[in-house]
Design brief:
The complex is a heterodimer of chains A (234) and B (225). By secondary structure, chain A is an alpha/beta fold. Helices cover 26% and strands 23% of the residues of chain A. Chain A is built from five helices and eleven strands, in the order βαβαβαββαβαβββββ. In chain A, α1 packs parallel to α2. With 225 residues, chain B is an alpha/beta fold. Chain B has one domain: 3-Layer(aba) Sandwich (Rossmann fold), CATH 3.40.50.1240. In chain B, the strands form two sheets. A six-stranded mixed beta sheet of chain B has the order 3-2-4-1-5-6, with helices on both faces. Chain B has a two-stranded antiparallel sheet with strand order 7-8. In chain B, α1 crosses α2 and α4 crosses α5. Classes of the chains: A alpha/beta (234), B alpha/beta (225). Chains A and B meet through loops of A and α1 and α3 of B.
Chain lengths: 234, 225
């Protein structure tokens, strides 16, 4: 299965003054259909924070309506990795749990984790991941967190998710491929880092024109393990 | 006893709510990338000073992480010290704070260390005198029975300045005590008879000027205020 990772759509954001959300989502949808994507992992920050919202979207909920409509139109499984302010929406509308395991097929599973504590993974979440991995023996498991874990990028950033060395060692020595995807930062593309069974990457971002950046996504083939990065003009 | 007193490195403030007071973070923020760099400069400075003693840190993430970075350079461990925590300005504590078990997962906390929980015990906004009521006995205790020959106390603007004021009085020092920039450190020599001598006030000359901050504010912004 090909799983497309998207992150930081920042819908309804007043900084996207050069292209309407509808047009960006339509272009992304076209790419999803043409690329043979079987499921989508969204790493969160789907709708921007309230102070950044366009006047026509006074609330987060209003902003999510367009996303939900778009998501339904694609008719493929989605795994959303909500950030805290988004969780009410995702759990209310789609029944998302705080931390969740999505078993997609015989080769693929996705684990999404909410950042519950300030910049660190809770012990219960580490245990959740280990239990979920045990259920997914033989599969390629993609872990999604909005914030990349500390040590997963070659550069320094302000907001990382701290994980313990012991937990990281368990992932690195796990008998199966684990791909940990983190979002949040709007910076140039990072090369994936591979340590043992664990590949960490920073797979996607969406352009905020004000920041002078660009859009890219990553497709993960869970059978071959191949990662495909695509750059987009939206 | 040689006593060092330092403020934490710059916290990660990017996710703070608009309009928040950056000098008084509204949550338990860890260090920013610059904050970790500042903590490294502090650690290297202490290493140069042959620091191999005890690190006592306020239990907040920004102080514990500063201590952890410095401890990894100096090869020491940390004991959380709640009396050196931030002054509470809000009606409610800004965060529940970490338990010692949680701290042990991320920081080199001494195996013997204990920490009562919750360690934020103030029931509302603290006055300066409330900080004194915590910090003065801590300093007195360290002077009376030093738990190590070299001690580093890592705290916040309020606790660091309160300790500096108290120790300066004891040292009969009326000069400039320095500004508590992020990762700035002072050094005092405390004799067995309790006499205090200031070796140097809060200083930060072991890091480049462009790295000097007081949370969000640059050196220039603080000086020109």
């Amino acid at each position: 299965m090909k799983i497309l990772v998207i992150s930081d759509l920042h819908l309804c954001d007043r900084r996207h003054y050069d292209m309407a959300d509808e047009e960006r989502l339509e272009k992304l949808g076209t790419f999803i259909r043409r690329s043979g994507t079987g499921a989508v992992l969204n790493l969160g920050d789907t709708v921007s924070r309230t102070p950044l919202l366009l006047d026509c979207y006074p609330t987060l909920e209003a902003g999510f309506e367009g996303y939900l409509k778009w998501r339904k139109s694609l008719n493929i499984p989605f795994a959303e990795c909500a950030i805290k302010r988004e969780l009410d929406f995702f759990s209310g509308i789609m029944g998302q749990e705080v931390d969740q395991l999505f078993e997609l097929d015989q080769n693929s599973a996705i684990i999404t984790l909410l950042q519950q504590l300030p910049c660190r993974l809770a012990l219960e979440q580490e245990e959740f991941v280990i239990n979920a991995l045990e259920k997914c023996q033989g599969k390629t498991v993609i872990i999604g967190t909005h914030q990349p874990f500390q040590g997963s990028c070659s550069r320094e950033g302000d907001v990382f998710l701290k994980i313990t060395d012991g937990f990281k060692n368990k992932l690195e020595n796990f008998p199966g491929k684990i791909i940990w995807c983190g979002g949040h930062f709007h910076w140039d593309k990072e090369e994936p880092m591979v340590t043992g069974s664990l590949t960490s990457l920073y797979p996607s971002r969406f352009r905020i024109k004000e920041k002078g950046d660009y859009t890219y996504t990553t497709l993960i083939d869970t059978v071959s393990g191949k990662l495909q990065t695509d750059f987009h003009d939206f | 006893m040689i006593l060092y007193i330092a403020r934490h490195g710059q916290p990660a403030l990017d996710d703070m709510k608009p309009g928040a007071d950056y000098e008084l973070p509204d949550g338990d923020y860890p260090l920013s990338a610059l904050g970790r760099e500042q903590a490294e400069f502090l650690g290297k400075y202490l290493k140069q000073e042959n620091f191999d003693g005890l690190m006592l840190s306020s239990p907040y993430a920004r102080t514990m992480e500063t201590a952890a970075v410095a401890a990894s350079i100096c090869g020491t461990s940390i004991v959380p010290e709640p009396r050196f925590q931030e002054r509470l300005f809000a009606a409610e504590p800004p965060c529940p704070g970490m338990t010692i078990e949680e701290m042990r997962r991320f920081y080199p906390v001494s195996p013997d260390a204990e920490l009562e929980y919750p360690w934020i015990v103030a029931k509302g906004p603290e006055e300066a005198v409330d900080v004194e009521k915590r910090v003065f006995p801590l300093i007195d205790e360290l002077i009376a029975a030093p738990p190590a020959e070299k001690i580093l106390l890592i705290g916040h603007g309020a606790s660091v300045n309160t300790a500096m004021r108290y120790l300066a009085e004891k040292a009969n020092y009326s000069g400039n005590r320095g500004i508590a920039f992020n990762a700035a450190v002072s050094c005092l020599d405390i004799e067995h008879d309790g006499s205090v001598k200031l070796i140097h006030p809060l200083k930060f000359d072991y890091m480049p000027m462009e790295k000097v901050t007081s949370n969000k504010r640059t050196y220039e912004e603080v000086i020109n205020q």
